[in-house]
Write a structure and sequence with these properties.
Blueprint lengths: L5 E5 L5 H6 L6 E4 L2 E6 L2 E8 L2 E7 L6 H7 L5 H6 L5 H9 L10 H9 L6 H15 L2 E3 L5 E4 L4 H6 L2 H6 L5 H14 L4 H4 L4 H9 L6 H10 L11 H11 L7 H12 L3 H23 L9
Antiparallel strand pairs: 1-5, 2-3, 3-4, 4-5, 6-7
Helix pairs in contact: 4-15, 5-12, 11-12, 13-15
The structure holds a DNA duplex (13 and 12 nucleotides).
Length: 300
DNA sequence: ATCCAGGCCTGCA
DNA sequence: TGCAGGCATGGA
């Protein structure tokens, strides 16, 4: 083993699989028992065995404090969950996703990534982001100088890229939004570090001013980059599940569901959201298709 | 072929 | 304020 290349992290109560598979971050891929991904401009291989996570990093480093922080190893999710109402949906989700943690991602990457999520499926999002990084991201080199991956492109790189290049990565209509937001960050008109100091509602308003960012994406950034655990993103899956479990399948709006969740789940609503989201997508999906079948075209 | 995807923006009532 | 249609692109 090269010095600084592999590390052992004690992580009792942590479930790496559900955490990385739950659609918070889009640069992780399961590789047998391992997870392979890029974070902090390093290629990282992670494997959990019982209460320990092994991390292999390229380039090597002795400082894994930032990785602990990214994974939120010390996050007291158990205590947060205890504070949630123990109703049927929460109980099922918490059991199904035991050990799921909320990551703490770099704000620019998180914002840019979720800008690309609208009206797309997760595998497609992953593919697009991979393309974007390969096209515009800084190369990651191993000790022999070979390129083994790419970091996430900084705002400057995206702001300077022609829309045509972004489109080539598969961004579609989101290309213009991403370029505009990148320019705002690059110029300093949007200071993502400063959002950390604002209260959640003020930060949310700032995010909502951005082109292509609405309530759902803003809440994702608040939750996954700034760890504002009260933020409750309402996507199509959350909407379906919440309608069924709390509204008797009535077609309530996303805004109504969000208001309801804020009141019911309180300061850890976002944690509840991620558990419900992953549970719904993995365990509940077939039942949902049954409960709300796709509309068939009516023949005339 | 048609619908939908971790939505958002615009235009119209 | 609320809602339908449009937006690029690809998978089911």
């Amino acid at each position: 083993m090269n010095a600084g290349r592999t590390h052992e992290i004690s992580a009792p109560g942590y479930n790496l699989d559900v955490t990385l598979a739950s659609g918070q971050a889009f640069r992780w891929f399961r590789c047998g028992r391992d997870w392979l991904g890029v974070a902090g401009n390093r290629l990282i291989r992670l494997r959990q065995v019982q209460d320990h996570i092994t991390a292999e990093l390229i380039p090597a480093t002795h400082d894994i404090g930032w990785l602990r922080r990214y994974l939120q190893i010390d996050q007291p999710v158990h205590d947060m969950i205890e504070s949630l109402p123990a109703d049927d949906l929460i109980a099922r989700a918490v059991t199904h996703c035991a050990g799921l943690h909320i990551l703490k991602q770099e704000p620019w990457e998180c914002l840019a990534s979720f800008l690309l999520t609208s009206a797309r499926q997760i595998p497609q999002i992953q593919k697009t982001i991979s393309e974007l990084c390969r096209e515009l991201g800084p190369p990651i080199k191993d000790e022999r100088g070979d390129t083994v991956g790419h970091g996430f492109p900084p705002p400057t790189a995206v702001a300077d890229a022609p829309v045509r290049v972004l489109r080539r990565c598969g961004l579609g209509f989101r290309a213009v939004f991403l370029k505009q937001v990148a320019a705002l960050v690059d110029s300093g008109k949007l200071d993502l570090a400063k959002l950390e100091r604002l209260d959640t509602e003020a930060a949310r308003q700032k995010l909502l001013e951005l082109p292509g960012v609405g309530p759902k994406i803003a809440d994702c950034v608040l939750l996954f980059a700034y760890n504002r655990y009260e933020a409750f993103p309402v996507d199509t899956w959350i909407l379906k599940a919440m309608r069924i479990y709390y509204f008797g399948s009535k077609p309530v709006s996303a805004a109504q569901v969000r208001e309801f969740a804020q009141a019911r789940f309180g300061r850890f609503a976002g944690v509840a959201q991620q558990y419900i989201y992953h549970y719904t997508r993995t365990a509940l999906r077939p039942q949902l298709d049954l409960a709300m079948p796709r509309r068939r075209r009516v023949r005339t």
